[in-house]
């Protein structure tokens, strides 16, 4: 089969290889998926760049955890009725070397949920990390109906979906954005208010937008950088659910301050989510796709031959939406 892989760490053009390798077979409990699309996320580019030094100890790595395709074969113990099923994949390159940037992937059947006909393969490629992360951030600590949720970076890959999950569940949503275009996008997704996180003391704007009351929860894209402002606008007993802290990667916590606020700090990564949370997310994703409830934003689509460009795009940033590699 045709695939992309890396055998050494480094920049995309220096490390990514495109060629032919053996097609995998479906083992017990697995399905063999003919891939149509592969989603690219920051975690994929960081792995390729050497964030996990032992990653290559077992041999070459085919990158990317997310993707979508059609089941062509099943292993022992898997219902043969699944052959021909459209599916989306997650965790394809977690705890294993062979991800979705290839014509075929053999993966545990539970990591290949059904992709409703209403959803394209491109959409299927962005469900794993962006959509499941957003779901976990919004729902990990209980029902949000009637609550006010702050989504920082509402126009980002995860924030984009967090706004939609929270509104669907009956929450009031305040998003942050740094320009008029992103503000309008957040409003179009259902945000009730948008404040500019580049403004000084933007937390006061959040409280004002909430009628003078502090917020219940935060879905946080830059935990370390935004924490001082968040502490000024979150209520006692509130929840901060964060999935990233790039600007300040090792934040120092004002422990006493946060303790006396009785705050819950929720650190979110899809790979470590409880299995029950993954299944809850999958069920809700199936519902919103079947009913065509959500908006999706694919910013760039490239071919497998141009996988280098896909990694360069993610690393350069400066755009909204997801990056998808078309395998066909």
UniProtKB/TrEMBL annotation:
Domain Enoyl reductase (ER) residue range list: 11-325
Transmembrane segments: none
CDD domains: zeta_crystallin
Coiled coil stretches, renumbered: none
Matches recorded under Pfam families: ADH_N (PF08240), ADH_zinc_N (PF00107)
Protein origin, superkingdom: Bacteria
Stretch forming the signal peptide: none
Keywords from the named record: NADP
Stated name of the protein: NADPH:quinone reductase
